[in-house]
Write a structure and sequence with these properties.
Layout (H helix, E strand, L loop, with lengths): L11 H17 L4 E3 L2 E8 L2 E8 L14 E2 L2 E4 L7 E7 L3 H19 L4 E7 L1 H6 L3 H15 L1 H13 L12 H8 L8 H9 L3 H12 L8 E4 L2 E2 L12 H13 L2
Helix pairs in contact: 2-9, 4-5, 4-6, 4-7, 4-8
Length: about 260
């Protein structure tokens, strides 16, 4: 994500530095803070910065309806028979995910489209708990409705969500009208079935399962990327995301080292 130029808004670089300071404090407190029933972990990892919440409260009360084209709690984009797998963990409200998407996103998709790998998306909604609101979950339900229309529709809507991501403290995604407005940017996506699924929160039960899968995955921050199980370093030590060209070179070198 390009740094925000709007006056008074925190830059992505400042958020990285703040997360580093928070991690140092967390280490001093050993296991981190316990807030209510949730254990909060703030980390800086090679793939970015994330604040993950392991929430012990049950979220399984909603009826479970999985969208077509879902692979359990995973969304697969690209040729399922591709020889390699890129795993991606992200949250639609995550500003660092947005930063990486805007920098390397075209290359991430191009390498899936040319068959180098398939992408397995593992989505999270922990930022709703960290920041307040329900935007991550509402956006993921809408993304599930897009997935029900096809994997290409999901990917296009995924990209639109990041292109229009609000400030992380702004719960603007917590709006069905906003989801439908953004979905209109994807040609052919807004069908009667899609609209009903967004308005009725049809995939809430599936969203809960996806969120639970993230919380038990051992992944403690977003974005995280792994190629064939090997974690990729897609941010520099200064917090800058890799460019599209750098990402392509990273994939090539990682595959060559197999």
């Amino acid at each position: 994500m390009s740094e925000k130029n709007n006056s008074g808004k925190t830059t992505a670089r400042a958020r990285v530095e703040a997360a580093r300071a928070a991690e140092a404090a967390r280490q001093r407190r050993r296991k981190g803070l316990i807030v209510g029933a949730a254990a909060v972990a703030v980390i800086v990892v090679g793939t970015g910065v994330g604040i993950a919440v392991q929430d012990s409260r049950s979220s399984s009360n909603a009826p479970y309806v999985a969208p077509a084209n879902a692979d359990g709690t995973t969304i697969v984009y690209g040729n399922p028979k591709a020889p390699n797998t890129l795993q991606v963990w992200e949250d639609f409200r995550c500003p660092i995910c947005d930063e990486l998407e805007k920098s390397a996103g075209p290359a991430v998709q191009a390498l899936a489209d040319n068959g180098t790998y398939k992408i397995e998306y593992h989505m999270a909604t922990f930022l709703d708990g960290n920041l307040g609101g329900n935007g991550s979950a509402v956006a993921l339900n809408a993304a599930a409705a897009a997935l029900n229309e096809g994997t290409a529709k999901f990917k296009a809507f995924h990209d639109v969500l990041y292109a229009n991501q609000p400030e992380e403290t702004d719960d603007a995604f917590n709006s069905t009208s906003e989801m439908l407005k953004l979905a209109a940017k994807v040609p052919g996506l807004v069908t009667p079935a899609f609209t009903k699924a967004v308005q009725d929160d049809t995939y809430k039960g599936w969203v809960n399962k996806v969120s639970d899968a993230f919380n038990t995955s051992g992944i403690t921050g977003t974005p995280t990327m792994k190629l064939n199980g090997k974690q990729l370093t897609v941010f520099s030590s200064s917090g800058a995301p890799v460019t599209a060209a750098q990402f392509t070179a990273l994939i090539q070198s990682t595959l060559a080292a197999k």
